[in-house]
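ok, trying the design again with the full structure, not the truncated one.
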């Protein structure tokens, strides 16, 4: 592992532990050259996934991009980071288990919307507004009308974040 500070190739693992959900290993490392400390996270990757974009481009799947989108949708919602990580892990497992090496960006978006719809109505609307590229108020109106009464409520016992 290269040191992110000085680029030296030799780093030592000082501590390893599984993440809370057991889906990854956190390793605390120290560089033998500059003595800087940093953390790496290792995850199991079942296969290399390729995302097919709407314009036909093919790009490698980026888990961090999916996680960032989910976190933005859930920003200032009472869903803790651990649960957000479980959501992302579940989505990635679904994609890997699909058996397809190539996945359309629309399928990823739909899976993410389904997951958010089941967790938090506000996050669902936020994600859908970006994913579906809403440009008119009517699009929001239709989405809200299509939701069942009470779906915007949060089925979580977590306290709200300030």
């Amino acid at each position: 592992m290269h040191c992110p500070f000085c680029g030296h190739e030799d780093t030592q693992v000082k501590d390893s532990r599984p993440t809370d959900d057991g889906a990854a290993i956190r390793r605390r490392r120290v560089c033998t050259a500059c003595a800087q400390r940093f953390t790496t996270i290792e995850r199991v990757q079942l296969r290399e996934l390729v995302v097919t974009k709407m314009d036909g481009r093919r790009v490698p799947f980026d888990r961090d991009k999916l996680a960032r989108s989910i976190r933005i949708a859930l920003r200032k919602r009472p869903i803790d980071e651990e649960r957000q990580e479980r959501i992302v892990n579940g989505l990635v497992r679904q994609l890997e288990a699909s058996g397809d090496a190539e996945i359309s960006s629309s399928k990823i978006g739909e899976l993410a919307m389904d997951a958010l719809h089941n967790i938090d109505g506000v996050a669902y609307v936020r994600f859908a507004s970006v994913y579906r590229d809403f440009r008119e108020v009517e699009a929001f109106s239709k989405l809200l009308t299509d939701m069942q009464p009470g779906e915007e409520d949060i089925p979580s016992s977590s306290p709200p974040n300030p």
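Keeping the full-length input from now on. The mean pLDDT is 84.
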